[in-house]
Amino acid sequence: MHFVRDARHVDGYTLLLTFEDGVTRLVDLEPYLDGEIFEPLKDLDYFRTVQVNPDIDTIVWDNGADMSPDFLYAIGVDVAENSLTAAAAA
Questions:
Q1: CA distances from 41 to 16, 22, 31, 65, 78 (A)
Q2: Are 7 and 16 a contacting pair, CB within 8 Å?
Q3: CA–CA separation, 58 vs 3, rounded Å?
Q4: What is the pLDDT of residue 30?
Q5: Number of other residues whose CB lies within 10 A of the CB of residue 45
């Protein structure tokens, strides 16, 4: 089981998340903002208010929306992998 330790907004619906194992992953949440609880997150200003709740070890918003840290880890792209891909494309 993974735990989110830090979250930073990057751009659009993408967050830079750091997990308990020290791995940092880019997570694009745009395709996953379905359902009533996630509707307010489609407003980018509101999306940017993301926080880490240390009691449940994941990202949350004030409206009660949260996401499983294991799900976030699984859909995220390792920052080292992303850097290598960008360097190879250049």
A1: 16, 27, 12, 9, 24
A2: yes
A3: 6
A4: 97
A5: 6
pLDDT band for position 83 (50/70/90)?
low
- Domains of the chain plus CATH, in order, are 4-89 (3.30.2020.10)
49 vs 4: CA distance, rounded Å: 16
Token pair of 86 as six digits: 């960008």
Angle made by CA atoms 8, 42, 34, in degrees to the nearest 5: 105
Quick one: how far is CA 41 from the chain centroid? 12
pLDDT digits 0-9 by tens, 4-41 = 999 999 999 999 999 999 999 999 999 999 999 999 99
Average pLDDT for residues 64-86, to the nearest whole number? 84
**2 φ/ψ angles, rounded to the nearest 5 degrees:** -100, 160
